[in-house]
Fold:
Amino acid sequence: VRACVKPAAPAFYLKAGTAAAQKWQLRFPSTPPQTSKMSTADEIFSTIGTSLKADPKLASKIDAVLQFVLTERGAASTEWVVDCKACAVSRGSAPSVECVVTIAADDFVALVAGKLNPVTAYMSGRMKVKGSTAVAQKFAAMAKKALAQPRDATATASAAPAAAATTTAAVTTAAAAADRPELSVRQEGFSSSSVFEQMATNLRVAPALAQKVNGVFGFCVTGGASGAS
Structure:
């Protein structure tokens, strides 16, 4: 049994076989990629950020900043910034961006998981793109690669201190990280900073991770430049 629902009249039509239709097809493939099994937008953006730090080349072809506005039913929207110039992902808004994507949080997760067709989302108004659609297209390709190797990227970053012995950082408890955001875990010249930064990010997003650990851990990593630790 097939249920047919008559859609609202579209703002424009694309005739199959025309140059415009082919261009649209290249920009928004009809078959969404199966790239992620993540269940929340926070997890998706966190993983993209980790992958970009571990492999900046992923964003080498995107000289732009993207703003994502994720809406929630009955709740305030959540905003994320993906700065491909600095290979950084963070919550909040940016003063200047090349592309703004507005979409419901659940739809964003479905889109990344390949359960929602991007053409359907765009044409139905469930996803709105303001600014450069070319940048959005490049981001989609980059995100696919970033999410396809999240575990490998994290493992590489975690193995770097042991292999190269070039890291140091101080890790605070989840409460301290949340109450004092000015405390930074980044130490210049040490590649393992990305590992501790990811820990801090995860604890801020999901404080429950530390509920069973009533303590403070100190890490002293040796082998830095000129014997630094």
